[in-house]
Amino acid sequence: MADGTRTLLVGDGPLADGLHDGLVHRGHVVAQVVPVGADGGTDIDAGIGAGVSLIGPPDLVVHVPQVPAGPVALVDQTTQQWVEACEAPMAEAFAVARACRPHLSDGARLVWVLPTVAMGGAAGYVGSAAASEGIRALAKSAARQWGPDGLTTAVLAVAPELAFPPDTGAGARTSAATTLTGPALGGPGDAFGDIAPLLDLLADPAARFMTGATLVADGGVWMAP
User: Fold this and answer.
1) 189-225 residue pLDDT tens
2) Is the pLDDT of residue 132 over 80?
3) 99 inside domain
4) Phi–psi pair at 60, nearest 5 degrees
5) Count of domains in the chain?
6) Rg of the chain's alpha carbons, rounded to an integer?
7) pTM score, two decimals?
8) Averaged pLDDT score across all residues of the chain
């Protein structure tokens, strides 16, 4: 991909930060928006507007929704925990799509980066898995509606080790509990060197004929869409 790709990155935490650095390393001009959360942040609409004012209309929008810090047994999950794990990420994904749409022109792409928890039925992550499936449906619907305007979408499903907070060890435990063998490439990869290059490829106009699809980028664990 040529240098100067205008990328709007919505998200916070190690995964989003690694993607930011990896995309900058590959010549992207990146504006990062940190959504409102427990640690404070910015309103989605205002943040995206500010980001667009800095870099211009984005060629690529990347959203990294928040995920729970750890598992919660299904029967013990409170309504508030369900809202935080499922409804809040889905609402945020919808808000990102809605706020970005007026700034997207022919050739732009919107990508969501999600954990693979829904593929393995990870115990304790029913809310996060439901959110991932809902956002995948959003990506498909947006691909249908925006395709005539030349806009494309995609989902990158990454290893839990990348998506869940690393200091909790939740990602590694989830992978161990839901897989029969390790990744074909020996590890889950990293945001800077393994996932950011895939986003760079998706931003290339040559990749525009792929839309609405989920690409599994976990080093070869779940080899299915």
Assistant:
1) 999 999 999 999 999 999 999 999 999 999 988 877 6
2) yes
3) yes
4) -140, 130
5) 1
6) 16
7) 0.91
8) 88
